[in-house]
């Protein structure tokens, strides 16, 4: 996948870069797997603003992705590699021998026409195949990793992400996550072989504010630019730095404040992610 630049005919295209989309095989999604995706605008079910800086954006349909990979022991073939507006990675349409089609996250080096399979037994260590952690050799790069058996992949799903199996001891495997955190995960959890594709996603330069609005992100206003009634950092004579430790509009500390409160799973973390 390559990165393309634009002729600076306007200020917005001077520094803008984008993907060349060489890996994609079609521009049309599989309609039976599309669902309507309503927009929340950052509001909850009561209409109150729960997430700031969201709203607008281009219309898009949601592609139903098979994160569970629970179609076991039925071979499939990669039919297309497609763009998904809802995620940074690409997706692949798999056509199984029984005629069913499903979308999966497209790993690196997955090509159209390549056979894949999902099984609870030992499978070939090839990109796109899915199996239990107990069947995957040490050192293998994996993605779409489950935290609970048969719940579906919850972590290692973004573009370019990949986890690595370091060791197996008893009922747990030690997996190094993309954040460098080392975590114990049950060996009966399922994972997909390979690294998630579209590695160049992180190298894209947006180039202009309007392109961010197309993606549904509204402007972020600094608290120090507001009035005291709107933000704890607001007000002051002249330009000020806030006058207190950084906080959110609600007064919650935003730097150096530990937000993890799930002590139940602390025992599964062997090494914390590096700061």
Task: Tell me what the structure shows.
The chain is mainly beta and 275 residues long. It has a domain at 18-202: OB fold (Dihydrolipoamide Acetyltransferase, E2P). The chain is 4% helix and 22% strand. The chain is built from 2 helices and 15 strands. The protein has helices at residues 11-14, 209-214; strands spanning 3-5, 17-19, 34-35, 62-63, 76-82, 91-96, 101-105, 115-116, 130-132, 141-143, 163-169, 172-176, 182-186, 190-193, 269-271. The strands form 4 sheets. The protein has a 7-stranded antiparallel β-sheet with strand order 9-14-10-11-12-13-15, with no helix packed on it. The protein has a 4-stranded antiparallel β-sheet with strand order 7-6-5-8, with no helix packed on it. The radius of gyration is 22 Å and the shape is globular. The mean pLDDT is 94.
The side-by-side strand order for the widest beta sheet comes to 9-14-10-11-12-13-15
CATH level 1 class label of the domain at 18-202: Mainly Beta
Tell the overall outline.
Answer: globular
- The CATH superfamily of the domain at 18-202 is identified as Nucleic acid-binding proteins
How many helical stretches? 2
SS elements, strand count: 15
For the CA atoms, what is the radius of gyration?
Answer: 22 Å
CATH topology of the domain at 18-202: OB fold (Dihydrolipoamide Acetyltransferase, E2P)
* SSE run: EHEEEEEEEEEEEEEHE
Structural class: mainly beta
Q: Which percent range describes the beta-strand content?
A: 15-25%
Question: Whole-Å distance between the termini?
Answer: 30 Å
Q: What's the helical proportion of residues?
A: under 10%
Q: Which CATH architecture of the domain at 18-202 is right?
A: Beta Barrel
The averaged pLDDT comes out at 94
The residue ranges in which pLDDT falls below 50 over 5 or more consecutive positions are none
Largest sheet: 7 strands, antiparallel
